[in-house]
Amino acid sequence: MSELLSIRDLTVPLPATADRRYAVEGLSYDLAMNEILCIVGESGSGKSMTANAIMGLLPPNMRPERGEILFQGQDLLKLSEPALESMRGRQIGMIFQEPLSALNPLMTVGDQIEEVMLVHKVGDAAGRRARVLELLDFVGLPDPKSLRDAYPFRLSGGQRQRVVIAMALALEPALLIADEPTTALDVTTQAQILDLIRRVQRDKGMGVMFITHDFGVVADIADRVVVMEKGLIVEQGTVDQVLNRPQHPYTRRLIAAVPHGEGRQNQVAQGRPIIETRNLKKTYRSGGGLFSAPREVRALAGVSLQLHAGETLGIVGESGSGKSTLGRAIMKLMSVDSGQILFRGQDLVPLSPSQFRPMRRHIQMVFQDPFASLNPRQTIGRILTDGPVANGISHASAAAKARELLSMVGLAENAFDRYPHEFSGGQRQRVGIARALMLDPEVLVADESVSALDVSVQAQVLQLLKSLQERLNLAIIFITHDLRVAAQVCDRIGVMCQGELVEEGPSAQIFDNPTHPYTQKLIAAIPGRNWDPTTSLTERVDA
Amino acid sequence: MLQRIRSACAVAMAVALSVTPLSAQETPQPGGALNMIVQPEPPILMVGLNTQGPTLYAGGQIYQSLLTYGKDLEPLPLLAKSWDVSEDGLTYTFTLQDNVKWHDGQPMTADDVVFTGDKFLREAHPRWRLIANTYVESITAPDPQTVVFKLSKPFSAFIYSFELSSFPIIPKHIYEGTDYRTNPANQNPIGTGPFMLKEWKRGQYIHLVKNPDYWKPGLPYLDELYFRVIPDSASRAIAFEQGTVDILRGGDVEGFEVRRLTGMPDVENSVEGWEMYSPVVFLEMNLKTPPFEKKEVRQAVMHVLDRNFIVQTIMFGIGQPADGPFAATTKYHTDDVPQYPYDIEKAKELIAASGVNPGDYTIRLMGLPYGSQWDRLAEYVKQQLEQLGFNITIQAVDPGGWSQAMSDFNFDLAFNFTYQYGDPAQGVARHYLSSNIVKGTPYGNNVSYENPAVDQLFAEAASSTDPDEVAAKYAEVQQILVDDVAMAWLFDMQNVTLWRPKVRNLIRTGIGLNESMDEVWISK
Amino acid sequence: MSFTRRFAAHPGALIGLLLLAAVLFIAAFAGLLYPGDPWQSVGPPLLPPGGDPLYPLGTDLLGRDIAAGLAHGARVSLLIGVISTMAAVLVGVVLGAIAGFFGGWVDDLLMRFTEFFQTIPAFAMAVVLVAIFTPSITSITGAIAIVSWPPVARLVRAEFMSLKSREFVQAAVTLGQRPLRIMFSQILPNTMSPIIVTASLMVATAILTESSLSFLGLGDRNMMSWGYMIGAARTMLREAWWLSVFPGVAILLTVIAINLIGEGLNDAVNPHLRGRKD
Question: Over the stretch A38-61, which tens digit does the pLDDT of each residue have?
Fold first, then answer.
């Protein structure tokens, strides 16, 4: 029995009002000791469901209909709650996606780690305290002695995730379940956490179940892979088998959609730039009163760039780099402290809101969150026609154009009369793009426009953007944190770090020959760097 | 001639009364404390400056006047032990009691009376001022025990001017030459009465104690009086039920409570003690507001108000329907006046005859802000008048607002009641004399009624010295006023006094509880 | 689940709806059910309920029909409740929207102004206002509206502040929509749910306030309202219990009904608070 964990025919039904009958159906896979198993799927595939079932965290109205979960020979589904409780933490540890909500904001970090041991009545007080320091050191946190007394909000995202890992490891469980633990982290931090998990698994000889949607991560750490779609396993095997020789069409489609890190064929910039920023500066000031100095955050520290018609400029950076601030500054959704923003040579910065308003039609934005960027109370038609109507165009001609754009972005015309909640995330982003195009803009700012989408949908939307750009000769500023996406769609890339544009150039060059140390670090941190998705495919499967 | 006999009788009665206690059946027991309620709490107890009910109630134990009046309205001696009226009715001579001392020990003499009538009340008391300026030529004190009032012309009601609220005797040695209103004695009143102020805890009680040097030997029987301040009507009823207070004066609790309490064991009740005041409730119709200048309209109003219903239902049976301006207990009242029985059809006929369309007018009806019975009364009147086609809106006012509106003649219909003070010349005429159409008080001729015949009759009655002539003139004036419906008189207000049987001798005169309680005693 | 189904799943809300419908029906048809003036004496005074089948709820001191008073009083109470709430909501929405959307010194100024009203106890201020402007239906409605708008303004301001930074609002800005249009066509429709819930509860409070004012004698003397009936009966609690019990029960039922409906609305528009599983 080298199998640490065996799932046999696990079937969990969904409540009657859901769109399919089962959350997961007929799941069967094994996890051996001393290996990392990755469960891959898009949102709604049911990949988190197994983890919840193992830990006994399923909601009361979703009980497994049939199947077994054998952990070290015992069927967890037949265990009583007290027995499960003693197993959690001691034999099986779990880490979640969002570390901030996994940690109690009112307890110090040290106390929380200690609590795991307290609950399981392990050791005495002195022994526990020593173990806390040991764990903090083990997960690579600096200065454990003082960090032990820190509260979660004082730590960065990566540090918090390390604390959560320390909590999961406190009692040296045999199985570690990690549910999207790095999805909410910056790419550099993600690389560090992945390293940590690999190290931990090696040192302790644990079995790790790693749930993710990112094939790059899979390529980096998995030993074996399970691919899920809509509650069913479509493919499983070793990482080499699944990633390089995928059999199932769905797997092939997913892998095809993964943005590959090769540089695009560049357009050569011609003529005068359509958008140019010169030395843009913006500092956020907050707090400060009689007795304390205000906190200052430099969002933009003198950013200068150029964008030409028909060109896609990518702005890449981690969180806090200022890339979103740059996008909003260009849109004049935010003011800047100094510098110039030149649109066709005219400086936009000194213009008042009412002076700038008629010019807004030339520079439009596609937003990040498909669920928040459309007014839930308005029909798609209204959402689309609001822009032109606000600019003096008659409702009738705006409606006609809206229908035209709807078909251009690949949606049915009857979407005009429907509401946003009837559409999926990808479809809503298409609406967002259509909305931006209603005013015939010359510049499009895409602010993390595909970051919230599943990888297959992401590929479709990127494809759409590309075809629209070719047709309409749009200039696009593409803001993203995902270098792989940037590499696929952008002609030129600018890398931002803490408000500064540290490097800029054609995307192929950035990838193959990064000069700035930060850029190098960023590129090195891309997960799955060593795996080329295109090698698996004999033909591109169109979305 | 008749006057002489009457004054002789008065002397005889005075002698008798000053020596013998009234109730000879039981032997009064000295000692004890009497608990009453005073509401609302009076601003001061100085009755020379303030004649509101609460001040008279508590202050009436401290101050006294020359005379008091029986339940039959006959004048009785108080500080004056006897008096004499000349044949021509122009000279009134009062002989004062012996050995009367002020609460500070100084003797009371005729000089105090002269000061009171000539200076103090002439300045501070509107009613006395009117009488004094119209009729009194001089007030003199030939000796310390005698006061002489000389009138410029006869005034048949003059002997009724000496009740506690009309003519309280003020100590000259305290008030002469001072600013009356800011004199510190207003807070520490000095009188001749059977009780003195011991302590006043604002918001809680007024505590009076026995005057050891009271001029009637052996009196008062009681040791102390407590006037308790209880702002809430329901609490007052409870206080009486629990025995915290022994007496409920008329107005202390609302009518339905009175009805309930009178049915309880161990509770005495009486409507006596108000004869001198005899308030009458009437609806004033402003004659300057159309269509009330038309007599038929006013007569219609009298016909459409069922005064029996008002008394029985709204006032819980406490009161007497009124037919005219004089209360049944006021002198010279006569029933021989035009009658206005409750008759809606007749009222409608009168309206039609008047040629007036009531629907053309929006009339304001101002209620009296004294409690729920008055609210019901206003609603009833509104409802009845609406049956004739009037549009009535009820105005809500507080006492200050009511007083202001009345004084300014700023009303269409309003309720009012006033004291009559025994003789019509004292308290009734003021509402109907055209010379009294003067703004500034709610208690004058606020409807602007002008009738030269009425003016003349009142004048003649007041100045006559022949009692039969007086009665005839007053009878005639009643007939004219009732025929004219100068006001819509509703009912004689009755006030029920409730007390515990252990309290004896409580209501002895026509001013009831305002009387000096020197002969009141508690049976143990 | 759709809105109506979520609402209907709340049994209390359905009961409230039925009760309120009954009250509305009676108020609407008071003129037909009880023609004539409720102020008219129609029967012997102080008739107890059940004493005469013509007057099932009895009569009051002046012989007025209690049932007629209740029916006509329903109109007054509901009218005042609804109109004062509408006025308060209007003022609150406008001020809250401007404060929440524009922020900065405009927000500071408006919030200080709002706080001024909030620091004065609402009922005491209503009493003072009505007393100053002499009691009438207009002054009562106005007084209630004046003391009720601050919570609405704060709610709307909070909603606007949070919605202002949402992406669809920013999208509207980028499209070139003017601020006023953004406020009222983009943001306001998304704040309607909490406003409606709050407004429904405010109607109940307004009815209670009007009843309290009338009870204290500050009501419009020419309008028969439930509060007035209780106030008139206050002195006769022991003798004639039906004078105050029936109007009191009417107020109680109406206020409960509105509160239940408000709760149902709240649950229906905030499904995530009930742990909806999707």
Answer: 999 888 888 888 888 888 888 888
Class of domain A275-287+295-526: alpha beta
First to last CA, chain A: 43
Residue A210 has which token pair?
Answer: 């790693």
Instruction: Enumerate the domain spans of chain A.
Output: 1-91+174-256, 101-170, 275-287+295-526
In 3D, which of C175, C165, C189 has the Cα closest to residue A376?
C189
Low-confidence winner among A145-149, C75-79, C177-181, C273-277 (lowest mean pLDDT): C273-277
Residue type, C180: L
Q: Where are the alpha helices (DSSP H) in B194-250?
A: 233-242
SS3 state at B29: coil
The angle, 0 to 180 degrees and rounded to 10, between the axes of the packed helices C137-164 and C66-102 is 40
pLDDT at C134: 80
Res. C195: pLDDT tops 70: yes
DSSP states of B438-462 as a string?
-TT-TTS-TT----HHHHHHHHHHH
For the four alpha carbons of A309, A312, A313 and A315, in that order, the dihedral sign comes to positive
* C-alpha torsion A262→A268→A272→A277, nearest 10: 20
DSSP readout, C228-264? HHHHHHGGGTTT-HHHHHHHHHHHHHHHHHHHHHHHH
CATH superfamily of A1-91+174-256: P-loop containing nucleotide triphosphate hydrolases (3.40.50.300)
Tokens of A35: 């290996």
Q: In the structure, do chain C and chain B come into contact, i.e. share 3 or more CB pairs under 8 Å?
A: yes
pTM, two decimal places: 0.72
Closest CA to A509 of A272, A265, A279: A265
Where are the strands (E) in A216-271, listed by range? Answer: 224-229, 232-238
Nearest to A166 by CA among A217, A132, A192: A132
Contact list in C for residue A373 (CB cut-off 8 A) is 167-168, 171
Distance of CA A143 to the CA centre of its chain: 30
Cβ neighbours of C174 (radius 10 Å) = 25
In chain C, which residue's Cα lies nearest the Cα of B316?
A: C61
Helix (H) or strand (E) holding B387: helix B372-387
- Please judge whether B260 and C239 are an interchain contact, meaning their C-beta atoms are less than 8 angstroms apart: yes
At B204, list the tokens.
Answer: 């809680």
Instruction: Indicate the pLDDT class of residue A36, thresholds 50, 70 and 90.
Output: very high
| Cross-chain Cβ contact C40/B383 below 8 Å | yes
Paired tokens of C180: 């006023």
- Tell me the CB-side half-sphere exposure of residue B302, using CA atoms within 13 A: 26
CB A33 within 8 A of CB A2: yes
The residues on C that touch B, with CB distances below 8 Å, are 37, 39-41, 45, 61-63, 134-135, 217-218, 221-222, 232, 234-236, 238-239
Q: Which two tokens stand for residue A166?
A: 């320390």
Nearest by CB to C167, which of A15, A363, A373? A373
Q: Judge if A1-91+174-256 and A275-287+295-526 fold alike in CATH terms.
A: yes
Q: Name the CATH architecture for the domain at C3-273.
A: Orthogonal Bundle (1.10)
Collapsed DSSP state (helix, strand, coil) of residue A529: coil
- Domain range list for chain C: 3-273
Which chains does chain A touch, 3 or more C-beta pairs < 8 A? C
CB count in 10 Å sphere of residue B94: 21
